[in-house]
């Protein structure tokens, strides 16, 4: 990474640091509607079998022993780890319900346990879940799949990493957020560097292929100096991937954030200083800016996929497996099957009741139109490649690109004048000064902006 990859232009950032979608999907989740129900999902599942595409499986484990005040995830905070057992039983039933309509012999190229805290599950419960997945779906046995789990170093039983590695898991991610004790106390997430280092060492000794750590800037009591110390400690651990997220303080939407004192948050100027110095430190350490808050080592699969034009982005972040139907299990989990999205019920009891009654627990979803699919491809390629080849899009969708996107031209020309992109008849290229602001480039192609009152986080 260097100035040819990302350029920190503080004037541009201050001008363009406005709210916008994160584009983990397009259309984004606020467009999902209750009209897309269980029968709609079952129809999409059956139709998807004709494609022969591989499968991606996501399992949402919502439980957390500790409440992190910054958290905006769907979760259930409890110390009752025995709650995991009935939850796993229902996950097994939900898989069986899905298999009524899906060809379960399609290979699973991607599998992810997210949360919440997946390692909240006791080892016996986790093993029962893994056994059930292996019994009901066709997992790869050659270690070429992208099988990962989110780990909380404070909540994991001995032997769990070895169990998963022996079953084919090869990736893990951990939320660190910050290592400064005062910051950790302010957000109610206290964990030591030693604990983190021990777990990473164990994972590497077991042969995990990729280790990813998450940091958040903009948390209470952070300063450029304190965060620089955190980042130096993290870099010394040499994670394969690192995410640097902006904390969005939205206490009216996320009640746990009401416990954070707004007066203790760093100022906008301090946040920009933290971001700028962090990019410099990661650059010096050899990390490549993948995009949308993500960095990776040059030899990492994400970096190689981006260079080859194969990078993809979905609800779990960047991925090297784009051509798969995503099946989702557990409360609030989001699936992407064929030209559709569907989200499970977000209430634990409602989700469980639907599964117990033999119904897929769909709460809402969306079947994408041809326009949605076209715009999704445009936005995905910009986020993943930082460039857009108009000829490729025209050939794939049978359109005259600039006539179709005539309403986007004015916005794009303004971005070009400001040095965020280059623009010509052949396509769009995001320049180094625009890469941190790529969400703004994507927004030029978003047909839904302004149609709802959804409150998005700021771009930076």
Describe the structure.
- It is a single chain.
- With 460 residues, the protein is α/β, with parallel strands linked by helices.
- The chain folds into two domains: 1-25 and 369-460, Arc Repressor Mutant, subunit A, CATH 1.10.10.920; 26-329, pyruvate-formate lyase- activating enzyme (Alpha-Beta Horseshoe), CATH 3.80.30.
- Helix content is 36%, strand content 20%.
- It is built from 16 helices and 20 strands.
- The chain has helices spanning 10-16, 38-48, 84-98, 123-136, 160-166, 181-187, 193-206, 224-237, 268-284, 301-308, 348-356, 370-385, 390-397, 401-404, 409-417, 438-443; strands at 55-61, 63-64, 76-77, 107-115, 138-139, 146-151, 171-177, 210-217, 241-246, 288-291, 294-296, 312-314, 317-319, 325-329, 334-337, 340-344, 362-367, 387-389, 421-424, 427-430.
- The strands form five sheets. Strands 1, 4, 5, 6, 7, 8, 9, 10, 11 and 14 form a ten-stranded mixed β-sheet that branches. It has a three-stranded antiparallel β-sheet with strand order 15-16-17.
- Helix 3 (84-98) packs parallel to helix 4 and helix 8 (224-237) runs parallel beside helix 9.
- The radius of gyration is 22 Å and the shape is globular.
- The relative contact order is 0.17.
- Involved in the heme biosynthesis. Catalyzes the anaerobic oxidative decarboxylation of propionate groups of rings A and B of coproporphyrinogen III to yield the vinyl groups in protoporphyrinogen IX.
- It is found in: Cytoplasm.
- S-adenosyl-L-methionine 1 binds at residues 58, 115, 150, 334.
- This is Coproporphyrinogen-III oxidase.
- It catalyses: coproporphyrinogen III + 2 S-adenosyl-L-methionine = protoporphyrinogen IX + 2 5'-deoxyadenosine + 2 L-methionine + 2 CO2.
């Amino acid at each position: 990474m260097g100035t040819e990859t990302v350029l920190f232009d503080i004037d541009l950032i201050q001008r363009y640091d406005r709210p916008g979608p994160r584009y983990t999907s397009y259309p984004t989740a606020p467009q999902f509607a209750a009209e897309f129900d269980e029968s709609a999902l079952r129809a999409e599942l059956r139709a998807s079998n004709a494609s022969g595409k591989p499968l991606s499986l996501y399992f949402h484990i919502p439980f957390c022993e500790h409440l992190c005040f910054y958290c905006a995830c769907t979760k259930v905070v409890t110390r009752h780890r025995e709650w995991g057992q009935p939850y796993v039983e229902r996950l097994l039933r939900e898989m069986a319900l899905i298999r009524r309509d899906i060809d379960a012999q399609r290979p699973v190229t991607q599998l992810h346990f997210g949360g919440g805290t997946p390692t909240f599950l006791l080892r016996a419960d986790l093993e029962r879940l893994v056994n059930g997945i292996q019994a009901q779906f066709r997992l790869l046995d050659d270690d070429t799949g992208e099988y990962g789990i989110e780990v909380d170093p404070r909540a994991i039983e001995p032997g769990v990493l070895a169990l998963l590695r022996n079953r084919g898991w090869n990736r893990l991610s951990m939320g660190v957020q910050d290592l400064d004790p005062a910051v950790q106390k302010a957000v109610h997430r206290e964990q030591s560097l030693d604990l983190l280092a021990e777990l990473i060492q164990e994972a590497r000794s077991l042969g995990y292929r990729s280790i990813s750590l998450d940091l958040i800037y903009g948390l209470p009591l952070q300063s450029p100096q304190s965060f620089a110390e955190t980042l130096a400690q993290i870099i010394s651990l040499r994670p394969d991937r690192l995410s640097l997220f902006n904390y969005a303080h939205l206490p009216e939407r996320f009640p746990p954030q009401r416990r954070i004192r707004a007066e203790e948050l760093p100022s906008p100027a301090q946040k920009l200083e933290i971001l700028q110095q962090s990019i410099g430190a990661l650059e010096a350490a050899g990390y490549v800016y993948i995009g949308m808050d993500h960095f990776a080592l040059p030899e990492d699969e994400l970096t190689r996929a981006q260079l080859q034009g194969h990078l993809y982005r979905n609800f779990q972040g960047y991925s090297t497996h784009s051509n798969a139907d995503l099946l989702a299990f557990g409360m609030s989990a989001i699936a992407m099957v064929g030209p559709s999205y569907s989200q499970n019920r977000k209430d634990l009891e409602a989700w469980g009741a639907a599964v117990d009654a033999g119904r897929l627990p769909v709460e809402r979803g969306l079947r994408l139109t041809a326009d949605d699919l076209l715009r999704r491809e445009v936005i995905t390629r910009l986020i993943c490649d930082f460039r857009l080849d108009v000829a490729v899009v025209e050939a794939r969708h049978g359109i005259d690109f600039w006539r179709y996107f005539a309403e986007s031209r004015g916005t794009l020309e303004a971005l070009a004048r400001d040095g965020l992109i280059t623009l010509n008849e052949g396509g769009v290229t995001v320049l180094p000064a625009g890469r941190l602001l790529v969400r703004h480039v994507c927004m030029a192609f978003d047909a839904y902006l302004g149609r709802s009152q959804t409150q998005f986080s700021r771009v930076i």
